[in-house]
Amino acid sequence: MMTTDSTARYEYFSQQVKPLLDRVYGDRTAQDLVDRIFKLLDSHFADSVEENLNKWSQDNIIAIAYGDSIYSSTGEKPLVTLSRFLEKHLEDTITGIHILPFCPYSSDDGFAVIDYLAVNFELGDWSDIEKIGKKFNLMADLVLNHVSSQSEWFQQFKQGIEPGCNYFIEANPDADLSKVIRPRNSPLLAKVNTVEGEKYVWATFSHDQVDLNFENPDVLVEFLKIILFYVQKGAKYIRLDAVGFLWKEPGSSCIHLSQTHAIIRLLREILQTLDPSVALITETNVPNRENLSYFGNRNEAHMIYNFSLPPLVLNALLQGRSEHLKTWMMSMPPAPIGCAYFNFTASHDGIGLRPTEGLLAEEEFKTLIGVMKQFGGQISYRTRPDGSQSPYEINISLFDALKGTAKGEDRWQIERFLCSQTIMMSLEGIPAFYIHSLLATHNDTENMERTGHNRSINRHRWNYEELEKQLRDPESPHAIVLKELCRLIRIRRRQPAFHPNATQYTLHPLNQALFAFWRQSMHRDQSIFSIHNLSNRTQKLRLSNLNLVCTDSWCDLISGKCIEEVHTEFILKPYQSAWITNKY
């Protein structure tokens, strides 16, 4: 029998989640699910389920790394080594860490999960994860579209054993699935030998990553158990990997379906009941308008990846022009209240090209592809519904992607790269730095050739002792970049105008080599004019074009240069950035 408090919680919970379950599963199943899920979560409800609108501030900075991005020759577990590196070099710089999939896996560097509740023993154990989580806000991946073919669930499927026998999507190989949108060029259906004979199962990403059947509500409940477990282990961000493909309806595109959006809303409500401080983030590498839909009506993801940013920043710096960045920025709505953009320029994956659709002209797109090949990059392709192939992503280290311009390599690699990172951390949203950006890591062609996978070029594993040697050398690009990025990040963290939801307004200097925008703090007491020279030539900006309030004193936070006269010209060296503010 429920107590009065429990009854009140149940009524509130049912009111919040039943309409969403109705949308996905229908009324009869939904009512049963409400009871099952409430029973699972009742003893774990937060004291208050009021929405937390203060999940972040300008102080939030996230790093992204694999558990073994840094390893030691001493034989210690990589998570221990990673923890040591973070504490030594980044403890006063970053506030959060996205440790890429740390569970046992069979392929795709962790994204073919075998066991969601375990830590890959080669990396360490849960105590290592929890130790890192005590010093840095932890982001954990929830790979919920698919599971490893070596998982217990899929082995049960092949043996006809419950519950796994009901967890996957069987399909007729002769069915018309031509409308399905996919990020890969492998066959959609994987042939599997089972105790009941040959079957075909849905595999959006690879035949080792078998799609789960969320039409079965038991699958949803399994993942709610996993979310509860991750929150108990200290996760402050839950990242929904490849979530756009979650729901399948033959005859449709099978991406961004309404049931998928309803499930994301449901997961947000579940997290709200467990811990209102935890944020849900969706990873949907798709054109910009489609990506924005994952905010919902400020009731789906708390954060969405800003997928158009990496290719547009890269293209702007290769071309030395700001026009496409400005066009994109003007089209970007402010994130809804309680939501934020997740800004990044590089990640463990490649630089997505679908987000450039409708933003880059064909010739410029071809130039981008060609230059990346010249700089050692690879191009990965996807199969369109009509069977044709199109570029899906660029696989390259961002540091090497910026070793030159569309005219070829030059001597401005470090400055150009630092400009790219300064642009990213200046924009509305929460900045995220891939560890190989912080470390100015080069292309790992040897790793790519060894694995046979293009993405391995940007998944270098640093030997800790060698990395420390490089960082002690003040002339190495790794030391130069890390030192300067840490300095810039620490400056940024102190500026209210860089709050993730602070006002952002695009500026329009006549000089296309300059990319400029205005940020204003939520209390309107600080303005920052963020100015970036995208070219390898010195540029001039008339400060009168910025409308600096003449009664205030102004200073560039990056150079420390104070501005004595607001009607003079401000000189920017090649790839120089400036944060001109009235509060310093």
From TrEMBL:
Stretches assigned to the Glycosyl hydrolase family 13 catalytic domain: 79-428
Transmembrane segments: none
Biological process (GO), any one: carbohydrate metabolic process
SMART domains reported for this sequence: Aamy (SM00642)
Coiled-coil residues: none
Heme is among the record's keywords: no
Presence of the UniProt keyword Transferase in the record: yes
Gene3D superfamilies: Glycosidases, Golgi alpha-mannosidase II, Oligo-1,6-glucosidase, Domain 2
Pfam families, per database record: Alpha-amylase
Family: Belongs to the glycosyl hydrolase 13 family. Sucrose phosphorylase subfamily.
Protein name as catalogued: Sugar phosphorylase
Native organism: Zarconia navalis LEGE 11467
